[in-house]
Amino acid sequence: MTALLEVQDLRVAYGKIEAVKGISFTVDRGEVTTLIGTNGAGKTTTLRTISGLLRPTGGGITFDGQDLGSVPAHRIVSLGLAHSPEGRHIFPRMTIEENLLLGAFLRRDPAGIAEDVERACTLFPVLGERRRQAAGTLSGGEQQMLAMGRALMSRPKLLMLDEPSMGLSPLMMQKIMATIVELKSTGTTILLVEQNAQAALSLSDRSYVMETGRIVLTGTGADLLHNESVRKAYLGEE
Amino acid sequence: MNELPQQLANGLILGALYGLVAIGYTMVYGIVQLINFAHGEIFMVGGFGALTAYLALPGGTTLWLAVPLMLAAGITVSTLVAVGAERFAYRPLRGAPRLAPLITAIGLSIVLQQLVFSFYPDAKKAKVFPKIPGDAFQVLGMTIQRSDLFLIVAAPVCMIILGWFVNRTRSGRAMQATSQDPDTAKLMGIDTDRIIVLAFAIGAAFAAVAAVAYGLRTGQVDFRMGFILGLKAFTAAVLGGIGNIYGAMVGGLVLGLAEGLATAYIQHLPGMHLFGGGAWKDVWAFVLLIVVLLARPQGLLGERVADRA
After folding, report:
1. Burial B224-263 (b: 16+ CB within 10 A, else e)
2. Out of A231, B113, B162, B184, which could bridge A89 as a Cys pair, Cβ 3.0 to 4.6 Å?
3. How sure is the predictor about A185, in pLDDT bands with cuts at 50, 70 and 90?
4. CA distance B187 to chain A (A)
């Protein structure tokens, strides 16, 4: 079987500054794939380009056999690709339920949507308890859960999570990571971007290390976790 | 001082007119953060569209038939002009520095005025607009002109429809999402370009309703009518909290009332006898704006934008 997502020699630039300088990677079905790297490595730029929010200056993206080159951003989700963006970006002045429903904006099956709202509320009980509350009143960790729940509402083939642990307490972070493991066990394919390399590597099947717009290292999560240069650069070891 | 009820009525009617036009400023601003300074002219062309329909009708057509047709024509013209402006003037500038679309809007405003001035038959002077004939109504000490009945009915109907649209329809929710976070709205599958067009179209339709009301009320339309009214409506939108649709109507009503009351009563205050009468009403409107913005920079119903992580 071919990969679910295939990125070939992707280049992205902001004006004259190239942020992604020709990267290639694949995401296989049923796996958790991670992109790790420091700030400014080009990870978020890569995800935003896959989602169509940014246009590549070169290279190609193939998702589920379809070339995404000319697909506008608002059509991406209907292909089965959901993106939980960096910084969560929930809709602050809408309720939690309205946020979840927007995740299912293109779906036309009210019964299935209602079922998935319940599923999100089971996965993250805090969302169920505060359904009618404005999403802007949630804590950072709760907003992260909402963003993930919202992304799942489209029943994606591929879930892209950008820095889900950013700014969270260790406890909240554990909870988010446990959820990712849980989602994987139900067969969801995940592309995870993280600065928290330790957590990301320990739950990923395949990992790519990015540095200033290039992929510098590839391997299974376990490989990289034991790789000396990774340990030095990202896991804070001397 | 039994003229108070009358002043209140005049203020509210004028305010509803400002409010309907203010909706267009606030909706477009809420979605694309553009002050569409051509919106006053969108209002003006709606008046001319309605007038054209009236002139095309056979003489003696009852106003019960004529007004709806004029309304339809005005809405059509305003909406087409607004959607055309978005497509050909503003959309190409999306992502450009914010000053570029703003200057374009001012330029478009002048172009639209001059097009009507130059090409609408005999538009160099004000054109006579039909009024609703018959005696004024006397209610609770207020005199209400028949022509104002149109606005008294149309303004609440428009607001109810708008509230329903924004809160109860799929497109309305998509519009809220787009205004709160356009990129994330795209990730949800929302075609934000379509939503932007829709915001321009709704604002234009409301402006056209206001233009018909204005024509009926004053008995005329002219190519400059959008300038000062547009400015007042923009003031109303800022006063109510720009980006907030209910704020636009509240801002309009407050502005209309303030103008009416200030014009009537300020001259009776000690030492203020020189500041009475209609000549000063625009001054009071803008004084009110300055005072409100000093006390509540976000406007009367505006929300502090501190909810983004």
Report:
1. ebbeebbebbbbbbbbbbbbbbbbbbbbbbbbbbbbbbbb
2. B184
3. very high
4. 6
